[in-house]
Write a structure and sequence with these properties.
With 621 residues, the chain is α/β, with parallel strands linked by helices. The strands form 5 sheets. Strands 5-6-7-3-8-9 form a 6-stranded mixed sheet, with helices on both faces. Helix 3 packs antiparallel against helix 4, helix 5 packs antiparallel against helix 6 and helix 18 packs parallel to helix 20.
Amino acid sequence: MNYLQVEGITKSYGDLVLYSNISLSVEKEQHVAIIANNGAGKTSLLRIIAGADTPDSGSVVVRNDLRLGYLEQEPWLNPELTVIEEVFESSDTTIQTIKEYELACQSGNAEQLAEATNAMDHAKAWNYEAKIKQILSQLNINNFEQKVGQLSGGQKKRLALAKTLIDEPDILILDEPTNHLDLNMIEWLEGFLNSSKSTLIMVTHDRYFLDRVCDIIYEIDDKQIFKYRGNYSYFLAKREERIYNQNSEIEKARQLYKKELDWIRRMPQARGTKAKYRIDAFEDIKATAFKNVSNESMQIDIKSSRLGTKIIDIFSIYKSYGQKVLLDDFTYQFRRGEKIGIVGSNGIGKTTLLNIITGNEPFDKGRIEVGTTIKMGYYKQENAAFDPNKRVIEVIQEIAEDIAVGEGTRLSPTQFLNYFLFPHSMHYAYVSKLSGGERKRLYLMTVLMRNPNFLILDEPTNDLDIVTLNVLEDYLSKYDGCVLIVSHDRFFMDKVVDHLFVFEGNGKIKDFPGNYTQYREWKTLQVKSETAAAKPEQPQQKGKERNDDKRRMTFKERKEFEQLEADIAQLETEKSEIEAALSGGESDAKRITELSSRFDEVSKLLDQKTDRWIELSEIES
């Protein structure tokens, strides 16, 4: 069933044409990803589909009565509202019912509460309220009374994502939903979207996420759009095939163009009908022949400064904020050429460690010794604050007029910009005109062109397009200096790092000898072993004693008691099934992770519901 149709869209900004006469369709429950280089118009297309922008020509048709939910890259939220008030700012009738119930609970008005309780029963909203709290909790949003204006940029993005998911729109439009999520949150979001019945249209640079969530990919390239029925792995293969076929057609057209051009030049002035037809066809051949033959790609081969024997030695570093311990007796001696990934929950101290190493933040105790040859390059999460009124080439010229790349090769600022896929037409564009991804690429240039030999990257993958990420990965794999990376992009981490600093909480850091996927497999096996070793006792149901002094169950408690009995039976069955699956030789790592996570959830729910059942069973009915 067709849910959404984009027909003949053209969009430009001044002389810059993003796409011309493109069309796409989205069917019910499809998960669609849009891929393109930075600046090609991915976000603009999402904004047009969501109704936040208008095309120069063309139309977007959405089936009647369908609700759209749109997560922007930089969402706006009301700074005066609390977190929970912002969540309840929705037109959804169920959410409004829950809002009225929450207000009634606060009012203390018995009549108002009774009316709100009936409305909750009628709307079957009790489970929905629990779902709201669960989504917020999974995205690490726990202080519901905090003002939105007090949240960090990452917290606001996560709140906006939670709000979009809670609304349960028919069509979910998500622009870079994994930005500002830690790895556990991303894996949870994967599962949530895969189990959701919403139709999904998404822009993301996270290739594992894209591979596991999406089944249709649209690629914007050379102002056109191409459709691929499959996930990211399928897209890669078919894209190469498309480019090869396209280049073959262009080469054939160029050979034919030479012959036709020779004929045109020799053709006498008096031309017949056949000649006129051939001349018209010649214009089509010419248009094909002068297309770019190969897909343009960025090559990074920046020279790094000489690295001495001593790198950076860290001895027993401590760091805390009040009662919160971020680093507890952390010691490490960096070695030449190693590439380390840093993983852990948001707010656990990853960026703090980077700031301490770079001297941007003090520590409480310990010692750091930096080698005399160390030249750091620090790509910060918040990025450089470029003057929006400066031109792109001026940003580069202010750092250097002569840039060393590779062995004995030097580039001018103009050549260097071309090297990073900034065409000459963009060199004198103002920074304010760049897309978010283009600003990231420019910032990356300013870090690398200083030739660091100790490179620190804090969330470098946010907003970079997939082409740039692939080239950056290749560069880092050949880089002979040290690399320290904080990233939530699992694909990027797997390709680049050789071991991990895992922040486990309370200042403890584990040095794991492998990449992220290997760590997750190890962690899953650990959980499985612990689960198998534990022998949870079945809760003993206490017998009820007759006591005329005991109060009787209310009607609502009786209904709850009956529901608990059904829930406990269902959870015990599910728990047994999971235990059987885990001990039955399941080999798929993703499936083991899902089962282990669900086992923990079921165990906690079973304990909670059993405790409540025991409590109610002691009340005389």
